[in-house]
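Homework help board

Subject: predicted structure for assignment chain

Our instructor gave us this sequence and asked us to write out the predicted structure in token form, then describe one feature. I got the tokens but I'm not sure how to describe them. Can anyone check?
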Amino acid sequence: MEKGSSSDSLHTLMEAIKSSELVENRIQLITKLGDAVLPTDSDLCILLEFLAVLWEGFTCLDVSQCMLNKAILDVAGKFLVGNPTCQEKFLILGTQACEWCAKHLKMTLMSSGESQEEDHYMLFFQLLSECFIFSASCLSLIANNHILDDALMTSLDTFSCELLSLVKDLATDLKKIQSLTSELLKEAEVVLESAIKVCKVYAQEVNLGSYSQITQNDGSSLDDRGASHLNHVTNLIKHMIEKLSELGILAADSGGSLVTVLNLSWKGVISLLQLGGNALSQKVNIGEIISILISLAIDSLRCAADTWYSSGDQTISTTEAKRAFIPIKFYLVNAVKICSQYPLQAFAVYREVTRCILLLTTLTCTFSAETYLKNVCEALEELLKPTSLQLLKSFLNSSQLSDSQKLQILDWLFSIERHLLWDNMNQITDFQNCSLDELFSVDCEAMPTVRTSLLGRVVLFADVLKTSFDLHEFVLLEIAKKLQRFLDVFVDDEVYTFALVLRIPASHSEGKSLELTWEPFLFCFLNALKIFMIIISGTPAWYEMECFLHNNLFHPHTLCWEIIVELWCFTVRHAESSTVDMVVDKLCSLYKLVSLSDSPFSPHSRLRKMARSMCLLLASCTASTVDRVYRSILIDERSDLSAIMYAGLMMEGFQVNLLSDNMKAGATERIFQDYARFVDDYIENPIYSCSTIVHGLPVAALCSSLHSMQIDASGLDNKTIRLLLAAIQNYKNSTDAVIKSHSCRLVCEALEIISSAKHLYGYDQMEHVIIELQKLFITGPSSSGFELQECKPALASFMSSLAHMEMIEGDESAKTSAIWQLYHMLLRERHWALIHLAISAFGYFAAHTSCGELWRFLPPNAALSFDLESGKNANVEWFMSELKVFLDKEMALSPMSASSPEQFELVVKDGCILRELYQKNSYLGVESVEHERMENDDANNNSNKRRKLPNGFSHGMELLHSGLKIIGDGLSQCKERQEDLTEVDDKIYTHFSRLEDVVKHLTRFADIE
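My token output:
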């Protein structure tokens, strides 16, 4: 009876409400409905349906409609708590409430400038608050009492969409709301959490992860009912992800006022995507979500960069920089999570992702050039670089992406077209002053073809090399194949300049902490290459590294060559002894091959370049290895080849001190003995000495050894003075161009030897030497010879040490007068290099001489005496002023000092010159040794002609040539008989192909057809 009475009472109130025409009466009756009636479960559905009918769908014009709807929500809310029944009815009512609140919110904010009742305004936002509370309670009810029902799932999907749309509308116009903002935001956040929880509950109920695994692997199907439930759940999660993404975009544009909503929305997207792989990937546009996150990161980065660049060179604090980068890192971290789980879908937008990564490294270079952005660079290195590399590795380390897809990413990111280097011949794209508009306006399609990101591409490549320890062997191999292109990038004059001048932040792990240091760009790149060498040792990529190192031993560009040599030195410093021996033996063989066709007297020849490489390499080897190389070169001391190889090493500064003690003593003794023997022969018959193949090599060897401070010059006697006087006479008396050239070279070397042996300045013959030099360079008939111009650097060195000899000041001394005239000649030089040498020499002389009348050494028309404006007026005081400035700079110059704009411009000019030289001699490798013509003219004697190779070499090459043909025919027959070749067979064909290339180049030496 009691339940029936309650039911009758419920129906009576409902009829009374229907018949009531006044809104105020309806509100009172609805309130009684909630207070007085305790309906049964069956009556609850009737009540909720009745309340849904009562709900006014149109927006109200006065406060009464808000009061009525608020009363309806109050009643429904009382029956909602702890009642698991009638879930669908609650959702329908909640959907109506959300739709109505959204309409009313827009209307309220549109009329916010007009007069409206304060009570009505406040009441609506109270109703909005209750709507959020009611919605959160509905979601909690479903999460705790979830039921797989088609109708319920449809209602839940609709309700969730309307609810999140309402939250989005609120967030959009939050600034217009004058009160209750904090309370409304908190309730909206609870709503978001509840909605995400419901999705997780239903995903677990249908076992969404298992479904994705089953359909992906064996194609098993579900029954109709199970498929329907699964479809409803995936639709629910899909719509939730879409709404959360929209809300996340809105929160990102709020200027920081919706940080919590931002975190909740995007974390919700990530957590929902993690619920199922294949099932969700078929429903959700995952690539679009990744694009949104990347766009948000780039937009935030652009906004921060614009702010900093407009700050007027005011130093940006670390705190400010990190505050700007934290949301960017948040977007990137979420992108990493999505790309790691859905690499196939992420591959569709890999260009957008990698563009963002490349933009970060490019900005690092741009910011590094500005002192006031130093803290920004450090914050970027600490916060964003690790995440950006993780983002790239989410593609490269994915087991779901094919090798061809990974290669496509690497090619797009790390392939540098040659026109990027050569199109810049007549114009300079200043990386340092590149505007932000230029950096951020480049789209994905144009990214590989613009120069603005060239420097950033090199930095990113170095970062990948440093952190490649966890990459797969295929990726390592493909990266190794791109080393050549990135080495050639340094040929570009701007990249070359920044490599030498620019410092960038670099992170190093110190235990558990991360330490940041500022290091030269070139050092960072070299360090990355060394780390990469360690990582790929023992992998297939190591062969590519070896080829890369061998092929660039003769790189035409100085900086590129130095990088290669340093990598070789790194190899022999840290490799096993067997590996070191193999490397050194190969290089020695190559050195012998080059020595067959090159002259040691050409400083730019491949022989000298190879000798320079060998000297640097041996400096990193053990004494036993150096001894072995030294013995192998001198195995036949009488042969010209041995003498040329030996002289090449000595002329490039071979460090005798690297030899073992016994070997070092013998090497030093040999240098002096060969020198003494040559001087005696030359003085006796200079013409015959000039005709020999190894003419002057002992002198060059001693000169180089003294110059590099490897041996003591105190053992030298007046033989060197006699050699100098004989060479001067031979130069003046001869009309043969070759003899003049050889004599001139001996004059240079003898002057260098004397300048290193200070005690020789005390010999009596020195006055005769000085007068002969004065006649040779100034008053003699041969003083205008072009060969003498090459002797002036050595003359400047010789003149500086004249400070250590006694001089009589006065016009009556022929020696002193000759010294004055020689200094006058040097200081009048106009070439910048000779000016530098002359000033350096005079500065040293002035600081150490006992002469008091230094003005006598200065010509009235010295190069530094002219004013800079007209270039016509000369004054000794100007010279002394410029000399002081020059010497002060020399003393203050530090290799670690910051570069000035003037230094920067000079390095740019050097880079332009080196690039032009590179283009003239591009890719002069080992294989082109036989194509270089001899340095001297064909009219010279036998010493200057290409030496004929021994018959055994030609015969051996013929056998190799025919043997390769037989092997090739055999392999072709084998291939025709076998349809499936093993991996071993593939390697045989690969190595055979490379062997053919090597033999092909060698056969050119023997003139084999």
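Reply (TA_rk): Your tokens look well-formed. For the description, you could write something like this. The two ends are 118 Å apart (CA to CA). That's the kind of observation they're looking for.
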